[in-house]
Amino acid sequence: METVLVTGAGGYIGTVLVPKLLNKGYYVKAVDRYFFGKEKLPQHQNLEIIKEDTRKLPEQIFENVNYVIDLVAVSNDPSGELFNKATWQINYRSRVRTAYLSKKYGIKRYILPSSCSIYGFQEEIVDETSKTNPLTTYAKANEKAEQEVLPLADENFVVTVIRQSTVFGYSPRMRFDLAINGMTYGAWKTGKLPLMRDGTQYRPMVHVQDTTDVMVLLLSADKNKINGEIFNVGGDNLNYQIGKLGKIVANTVQKETGRNVDIEWYGDPDHRSYRVSFKKIKETLGWTPKWNAEMGVKEIVNKLEKGEIDKTTETITLNWYKELEKWYNIIEELKMYGGILNIDIDNDEITPFSLNK
Ligand SMILES: NC(=O)c1ccc[n+]([C@@H]2O[C@H](COP(=O)([O-])OP(=O)(O)OC[C@H]3O[C@@H](n4cnc5c(N)ncnc54)[C@H](O)[C@@H]3O)[C@@H](O)[C@H]2O)c1
To answer: Is CATH 3.40.50.720 the right assignment for the domain spanning 3-314?
Structure first.
């Protein structure tokens, strides 16, 4: 049985990827701080939960591992700005460290899940050879990680970078801070879908089932086709103009629920746009996405209607990290004797002279 080490395994993408790997017969070492909870991964005899920080991952974890999928990250732009230092450490340094250790321990393949956001906004349709234009800490840290892990590739160590489009769809660690997911929730909950003017801007999207399919595919793909390579992950038909995407979401929610959904435009016209070519992954690996936005919206609406998911603080990454930091500080200040109200003491210790002993 081959072993895959997945970092960030408790996240939005990880909690979809890990069950897929288990179904394919892999043994999985699932590393995460589990900021979003451990219970989102299934219990399985071939799954080893490792609660660890990737900045301090002990070397023995790399023993007997065949593949690494290094998902770990502070995973969006606003969190990257607020937790700037941690983002550089986790998204860049810890991933380069993990790639080095993977090579040192003779691991066969290392996959770095990066992001199309490193292209920034550009007029032309960009492909893997285009100049990048990372605009945020999150995008810059991804680019630095790419630049330092790719040169590690050699004939015994396969390194592949995938630049994922913005992901959508249901995951056990649900995220409503992703474009399609957030729009769907707004339309479903309030019947109003806020859209930034003027709607002509393009953004590439990919479903979480599709991007995790690519990760699985890369474990067995012909190494000569993928070693040292970068692949954009998405579909040419999934380069959505925001206005059209808003209409797809509104119509789908309306159809699924029978309730009216109106689009509400806001802001000054934003022409920042980027369109990505997905020709390379299609021609090299014969891969194209199976899902589109409409299917993803339907899936989420069904889960919302059944009450299986909801928009809680935990589903908005930035708010959850802020909340965790806030409570960490409060608890550090208040805790005494191992607790707050419940402390580490028994009754006799308080009233050794008690009459009703
Ligand atoms: N979701 C998207 O739209 C998208 C798009 C492009 C690229 N990506 C990339 O895919 C990867 C996964 O994204 P996601 O959406 O699943 O994000 P996520 O925030 O849901 O998952 C990240 C996981 O990493 C864990 N983590 C954070 N810091 C850690 C640390 N120091 N040590 C151990 N664990 C830690 C968190 O607990 C979380 O479970 C990220 O690298 C992200 O940049 C995501």
So the answer is: yes
